[in-house]
Write a structure and sequence with these properties.
Blueprint lengths: L1 H23 L1 H21 E4 L3 E7 L2 E6 L2 E4 L5 E7 L3 E11 L5 E12 L2 H6 L4 H18 L3 H6 L1 H16 L4 E12 L2 H43 L3 H12 L14 H17 L1
Antiparallel strand pairs: 1-4, 2-3, 2-5, 6-7, 7-8
Helix pairs in contact: 1-2, 4-6
C-alpha cells in the first residue's frame, strides 16, 4: 500500500514536469511522460519498509550485501533482491514419533519447539529452509533421546527429556542463525495392554498401602486399649464411670432399655471380699 502511494506521488510530480516541458517542446515532453511512469515505478520498488519484527536480507547480484530493518530501507531494482525474515518466536509442532525405549517398550511421543531467528543472514544463506530443518532435526533428536531412557524415566522425567532435546538441537541450530527458546514433550502413547498392566500395578500398590495403613491403625488401637484397661484397673471407680458413660451414650430414646444383671456396687463388694483373704495370707 505504501509503495502504491509513493508510486502515485512520484508519478504526479514527474507528470506535472512532463506537461510543462510538453508545452515548450512536444517531443521532449512526450518522452518525459513515458519515462516518468517508469521512474515512478522504479522509485516505488526501491523504497521498502520492514516491520519491527522483520529483517531484510539483501542480495546484490546473488551475493550477500547487507541486512536492513526495521524501518525504511532502499534497494536497487533488478540488481538487489530483498528476502524478509520474521524474527518473532515461532511455534513448531514436532509430529508424533515412533520409538523404542531402553527397556524395549514401543512408544509414540510428540512435542512442540519454540524458537526464533537470531541472525537473519545465516538463516537465509546457511540453510535452505530453516523451519523444515529445525523440524527434522528435532524429530531425529527426540527419537535418539527416547532410545536412551527406560519407560519409567520417560513418564517421570518429561522436563529433563525436553531439556536434553533442547541442548542437542541448540548446538546445531546456532549454525543456522536460530535460537531455541524451549522444547516441550506434549503426549506419550503406549500399547493398550501395557496401560492395563500399569493400571493393575498401580491398583495393587494402592491396596498394599491401604492394608499397611489399616494394620498400623489396628496396632495403635490395640496399644491404646491396653493402656486404657491398665488405667481403669489401677483407678478405683474408673469402671463405674466408664459404665455410666456408655449408658449415657445410648441416648435418651425410650426405645433403649438397659438391664444390669448384677449391680456395679455388688460387683465391687465381691471384688473386695475376694481380695481381702489374699491380703491376710
Amino acid at each position: 500500500m505504501v509503495n502504491f502511494v509513493i508510486f502515485l506521488v512520484v508519478l504526479a510530480i514527474t507528470a506535472g514536469i512532463s506537461v510543462m516541458v510538453y508545452q515548450v517542446n512536444q517531443g521532449t515532453g512526450s518522452l518525459l511522460g513515458v519515462l516518468s511512469f517508469f521512474f515512478a515505478l522504479a522509485v516505488a520498488v526501491a523504497i521498502r519498509i520492514a516491520n519491527q519484527w522483520e529483517r531484510a536480507v539483501i542480495l546484490r547480484l546473488g551475493r550477500y550485501s547487507r541486512t536492513k530493518g526495521p524501518g525504511l530501507y532502499f534497494i536497487i531494482p533488478i540488481i538487489d533482491q530483498a528476502i524478509t525474515i520474521d524474527t518473532r518466536i515461532l511455534t513448531l509442532d514436532i509430529p508424533k514419533q515412533q520409538a523404542i525405549t531402553k527397556d524395549n517398550v514401543p512408544v509414540a511421543v510428540n512435542g512442540v519447539a519454540y524458537f526464533n531467528v537470531e541472525k537473519a543472514d545465516d538463516a537465509v544463506i546457511r540453510v535452505q529452509s530453516y523451519a523444515y530443518a529445525m523440524s527434522q532435526y528435532a524429530q531425529a533428536t527426540l527419537r535418539d533421546v527416547i532410545g536412551e531412557m527406560t519407560l519409567d524415566q520417560l513418564l517421570a522425567e518429561r522436563e529433563r527429556i525436553g531439556k536434553e532435546i533442547e541442548r542437542a538441537v541448540e548446538v546445531e541450530s546456532r549454525k543456522w542463525g536460530l535460537k531455541v527458546s524451549s522444547i516441550k514433550i506434549m503426549d506419550i502413547e503406549m500399547p493398550e495392554d501395557l496401560k492395563k498392566m500399569m493400571s493393575r500395578q498401580a491398583s495393587a500398590e494402592r491396596e498394599k498401602r491401604a492394608t499397611i495403613t489399616k494394620a498400623e491403625g489396628d496396632k495403635m488401637a490395640a496399644f491404646n486399649l491396653a493402656e486404657a484397661a491398665k488405667t481403669m484397673f489401677e483407678s478405683p471407680g474408673a469402671m463405674q464411670l466408664r459404665t455410666l458413660q456408655t449408658i449415657d451414650g445410648l441416648g435418651p430414646s425410650a426405645s433403649n432399655t438397659v438391664l444390669l444383671a448384677v449391680p456395679v456396687d455388688i460387683m465391687e463388694a465381691v471384688k473386695k471380699f475376694v481380695n481381702k483373704p489374699a491380703q491376710g495370707a
